[in-house]
Amino acid sequence: MKHIALLIAILISIPLAATTPSADTILQEMDKNMITNSSKATTRMVVHSRRASRSMEAISYSMGNEKAFTEYLAPPRERGTKMLKLGNDLWIYDPSSDRTIQISGNMLKQSVMGSDLSYEDMMEETSYTESYSAKILESVTYEGREAWILELEATSENVSYQRRKTWVDKERYVPLYEEWYAKSGKLLKTFTASEYQKISGRWQPMKILFKDELKEGKGTEYIIDSLELDIRIPEHIFSRASLRK
Amino acid sequence: MFSFIIKGIFRDRHRWLFPLSVIIVSVAILVFAFSFMDGFMMSFVRQTARFDTGHVKVVSRAYSEMLNQKPHDLALLDIKDLLEDWRAEYPQVTFVERINFGALIDVPDDEGKTLMQADAIVFAIDLDPAGDDYHRMQIDRALAQGRAPRHSEEILISDIAFENLNLKLDDEITLLSSTVFGSMTMQNFRISGVVKFGIQTLDKGALIMDLDAARPMLDMAGGAGEILGFFTDNRFDTTRATSLARNFNQRYTDVDDEFSPVMLSMAKQGNTGYMLQVMDYGTLWMSMSFVIILGIVLWNSGLMNGIRRYGEFGLRLAIGESKRQVYFRLLSEALIIGFIGSLIGVSIGALISKNFVMDMSVYQKSSSILTENLLSTTMSMKVVWVGFFTGLLSSVLGASLAGIAVFNRQTSQLFKELET
Fold first, then answer.
1. Hey, are the CB atoms on A111 and B119 less than 8 Å from each other?
2. Which of A10, A151, B337, B372 is the most exposed, fewest CB within 10 Å of its CB?
3. How confident is the model at residue A125, as a pLDDT?
4. Contact (CB<8Å) B183/A102
């Protein structure tokens, strides 16, 4: 009788194991979804700080992980502020002072426009496979979606967060929720993605809530109003000259 | 009787030379040490109040929780009317508005590209030369080059930052910081002057700009990070400041509103209160230690002298003086020696302290304590009395301990010692 029960258990577990991909495969599938060749997006960033909530609108262009350009459109105080990322360099143009300044050193740890994101977060290479090794912790249901919880360990010192925990949608291979930790194990930030849409064959979150766990406030909502993927973007946009235009 | 004791002391060199010398030297050292500590303390209170804490400070409740970080994003906004009320209600206090914030100085080259960058602390104050804060910050005295800002796009820079960034007067720099709502803000300024406060922590990297220039830059209409209050007699008193803060907070602080104002006495601000306590206890401990050490020294000296005078004691007891009378005579002598020694010691200590100035800049390079680089001593009646009574008390203590030996000797033994 014991042998029959063991046999049944083995037979049941074979198809389950066969349907669970490896952690590395999950990361590769996530990268396929999240990393685009090029993109153009109009976005809103709603910062819920201790004092008040305020909204900023921007248009952003990106080419892979290396190049990104953002121009703020509203409110009037922020209008015309531009940011350019080329590899590991980040420049900001301020129209009121007509100055372009490279953000480096300690400034990279500062908040972007008072949000829960730092310049360092903006500079982060988002390729999971290149930056992290992973292991599957468990299967859970998160916000009605079947998900794996993955523990990611950084494979190099160059990433901002040495450890992450990611809740990955089993069907779409996208992150639903992430916890970003310091090397010491302290929880620094959380990331909650929702309203996924399939655009150009890729699942993309249209709303993300970033929360800096070290400061008070209700976090920063990042809302994508329109998104185009894999489009042709003129090369001159990703040049320093475009900052002052 | 008094002149008899005096003659007795000073006709016998052994009775006065050693104890008097010890008291004079010790009291002089004590007076000098206390006057130096008082000078340090006064400088600390003066400079800390002037640049950082005021005698009292009004901030938002949220700001007070992170006071040391000076989070200007938690500043009080639109406080003009409130400030008018406070000025009317507390005429014994002069209120001045300040905004302190961290910024990045960016020095451009001829093409506008970043040439150099440095971190800075910006003090935004009322730079009206007729204003109260202009004089309190001693801007005219601190100006090493150039002049005070006359326009909102002009700024003052500390001399070390000025040199490190290879700047010249009238050069343009860009300041990067964040608004009260957290947005990035950049503004260009021209260097109108260079300041040197003689305070290492400020001279390393401080900028001074006008409040009216800072407010639009930081999107802080009618706001101030901190409102410093100074008693009109310019004297800090912990009890008075604490009582004022209590009264203010009962009237204006709303525990349900984290942006309601709260007043903090200087003694309740960060490490300042701790420093004030340490200094107070330091004086007490130092004084007590001196009394004990000097007492032990003079006790031993008294014992030595007492042994030498056993013969005399024996004779005096033999001719009818009681032990108590002998003992009190010893104490009287100690009192006189202590009085004279303390008087001379205080005078010498005061003379040494009078013109003493010490350059503290070497020690301040890694210190965040605000004191002037050139530290002078401060003589006060407190120092005089503490020095004087320490000398007097230790002399009496030493003699009273040594004199106990008189009671431990039998009259017959003392008389016997007289015979030998």
1. no
2. A10
3. 62
4. no
